[in-house]
Fold this protein.
Amino acid sequence: MSGDGEVILEGGPVGIPTQVTAAEVDLAERIRIRRSNGYDHFERTEDYRAVGDSNLPVFRWAYRTQVAE
């Protein structure tokens, strides 16, 4: 089952949010966040973090790519 959900983001450059809503998180191995003139890429870990009544999957920053013009 997949759908929208909250995830935890770890690492990466300053200014990246630490918690976001991402589509298809149940099946996603990677999440791409558009920021400024590029994308920050996060890879799913096996970790979960308790936030309120939920256990959210943790994604760790892997690399950044530039937007092609």
User: Anything to note?
Assistant: The first strand starts at residue 5 and ends at 10.
